[in-house]
Amino acid sequence: MTEAVPGQAAAAMDVLLQARFFAGLTPPQLERVAALGRSRSFPQDTRIYTVGDAVDDFYVLAAGVVRFTLGLGKRETSAGDIIRRGDVFGWAPLVEGHPRRIATAYCLTPCEVVAIDGVALHGLMEADNGLGYAIMKTLAVLLTSELVAFAAG
What we know:
The chain is an alpha+beta fold and 153 residues long. The chain has one domain: Jelly Rolls (Sandwich). The protein contains 4 helices and 8 strands. A hairpin with a 2-residue loop joins strand 4 (66-72) and strand 5. Helix 1 (6-18) crosses helix 2.
């Protein structure tokens, strides 16, 4: 299990507190998730990940703007979204049986993220069923809204 250094855990906690995705977690649950996070920086015009990459981290955007584009086979579609501060992306580590990315995350500006180790988060969700249920419930809402947006064009 990957754990952040104390300063990084505090910085991750600040970002997670502002992310709607984690609103259903109790303060102790949120602390355990934040302990798995580490700060990462990406310059403008950088891909954080691309279609087909191995799944590793789950991300919370702390600063900047990311273009999220769904993939179709080895091609990117025009469907996607703009990710802003406090939004989450790269949710594939939360879904069993998806070892490869199905989207691309591209930095439109310089970006700061909290990268949460996906394997460790999945383990935490298994160990704390309440935490796992809260995250999966929120993930279901997120994915449904993404599908509706995709269908609407």
